[in-house]
Amino acid sequence: MNKELILIGKIVKRHGNKGHVRLFPFITDLALNEYAGEISTIDLSGKVLRRKTSSIRLHKKFWIILFEDINSIDTAESIVGQKVAVDRTFFQKLPPGNYFWFEIIGLAVYDEKNNFLGKIENFFSTGSNDVYMVKNEQGKEYFVPAMKEVVKQVDLKENKMIIHLIDGL
Questions:
Q1: What are the φ/ψ torsions at residue 76 (nearest 5 degrees)?
Q2: DSSP string over the chain
Q3: What is the pLDDT of residue 34?
Q4: Fewer CB within 10 Å, N- or C-terminus of the chain?
Q5: Could you confirm whether domain 101-163 is CATH 2.30.30.240?
């Protein structure tokens, strides 16, 4: 998939009888109603198709989307299961020291002595801070709190994070 495309969700079913589909978002603070442009669908083989939207609205925990090229139940049904992505430009630039989840996942993590600890596979929020799940080549997992006392440097150009090891990590 194009590195400029960011996965935002998956089409889980059709909605109504005019070609609308339900998008289950992968992120909770997605503001698609402010998005006017093209959305890409990605089929199971990985083929990316850029589509223009006719309408987008929030319905409970789903986004209801009508694509310009989909106008029937059958065509809507044909894209159920596909993933959905938007251009990276959809996400506004963050202040220095703040990062989007898609920038953090996949970073190589090193301690301050440059020992490789693994890659960030996932993250979750505890309420007070995020926690990064780092997995090494042997499959061992480490949980790294996303706090400035622990995360010493993030270098997106080098795809690298340096952390200060604390007791219990």
A1: -65, -45
A2: --TTEEEEEEEEEEETTTTEEEEEESSTT--GGG--SEEEEE-TT--EEEEEEEEEEEETTEEEEEETT--SHHHHHHTTT-EEEEEGGGSPPPPTT---HHHHTT-EEEETT--EEEEEEEEEE-SSSEEEEEE-TTS-EEEEE--TTTEEEEETTTTEEEE---TT-
A3: 60
A4: N
A5: yes
Is pLDDT of 28 > 70?
A: no
Which tokens is 135 given?
A: 């997995």
Domain ranges of the chain: 5-90, 101-163
21 by Cβ neighbours in 10 Å (0-12 / 13-18 / 19+) ranks as buried
Question: Position of tokens 């090494």?
Answer: 136
Q: What mean pLDDT do residues 39-65 have?
A: 91
The fold of 5-90 is: Elongation Factor Tu (Ef-tu); domain 3 (2.40.30)
The token duo for 140 is 């061992």
- In the block, which residue shows the tokens 């993030």? 154
